[in-house]
Amino acid sequence: MLLKKELGLTLKSLTYWLVVLFIGFFLFTQLGSDFVSLKQPEPGQSDYGTTQTTNKKDIQQQTLYLLLQQYNNESYNTYPFGFLKVVKLTKSDQAKIKEILEQATGLSIQELNQAQLEQTKQAGDETAYLTDPITLAEAFPLAKDYTYQNFEKDMIKVEKLIGEGSDFSSDAYLHQSMKNMTYEEANEAFKTTLTKDRVSGAFARVICDYLGIILSLVPVFVAATVVLRDKRAHSQLVIQTKKVSSFRLQGSRFVATTLLILLPVLVFSLLPAVQSIYVAQNYHQTGDLLLFYQYIIGWTVPTIVAVVGISFLITTVLNGLVSVLFQLGFWLLSILSGGNMDVITMSSIVQHGLIERDRVFTVSVLLPDKPGELARVSALLAKEQGNIIKLEHNQFISINRNAAVELRITMEAFGTEHKNQIVSALTSAGYRPKLVKFKGTYSEM
To answer: What are the residues whose beta carbons fall under 8 Å from the beta carbon of 429, sequence distance 6 or more?
Structure first.
């Protein structure tokens, strides 16, 4: 049987098994071996998590609040190709940002900063910085005549000044504008996960988000190997001499490649599938393995079919290494140009995996505003082998700058034990570190 023969040939390919290992490595490093967690919200909790908001006033306040912070720091974050790039504006462009902020709020920059300081003062502690950014933004003033249409036009101007990929593109500010969930909202989301999704469906969608990244790329290598196999063996003449149509041959190869890419997806998804059923049982529900795999197959098969088909076509036309490089470039371009899997979604998925395993975390400390303090902290972190990937310096966190200049440090660690070691070292040095949670709130160590 032709299909069986093609399956056997591909299974003997080193490229195929490297792809299988890569899929498994990607899933288990991002998800971990025990990634499934589900907790029922309880009344009186201090935190029920966050969810995206569609409230236009919230979107305006949070985005303008962020713009003020970056204006004060005289640096703006952009993410070309998914990597952070800090942009410094000219004095004239800074003046334009200032004009936008003042028109949007009806206050001067000095008045806006003073309002923030007063907000901190009302907390009753000069060194307090425990209010999360969502709460701070709720009090951010807006001019009475400042409409959402004005806001959209202003953000277009801001992005032109800063550059593409900033926090002020429409995709970015709509995606990152959040609201704190109430108990009722959190409980409703929990019930939906139990009843409608039966737990398995919810976790299957998480797996599919991860698989969407990897399956838009790795089938290229298997498909290219299959197409180039004949070219290396100079077997085009053999195809013509045997009474096997080229259509049937290519069709068999296409089906075989698709099935062999799908196989490790189904196998590697088994662990989270079983875990989701176990979690459902803890809440007296019945997990649905069939529903889990309906999601997995329904979401991944179209991606595999499309990528394999395109790869077959391009490899046949371009031939050789050029075809693989072309497809890699096409994949990168499609990721960066938007769609369901854009840069923000892709980076947040990967970041989530790193944060969940304590490979990346953010800690906040208070420093006196004087020379040498930053060097002391850096030396301590270097001694503990913490790899700093981002620093945020906020001089407007307290009334008394000498007592309360905030330094937020995002760093990489080897895992939970190493993270706790770094935090303990900061505590021993008298810095009173506070871990910044994923949503932006704090937890004191």
So the answer is: 376, 380
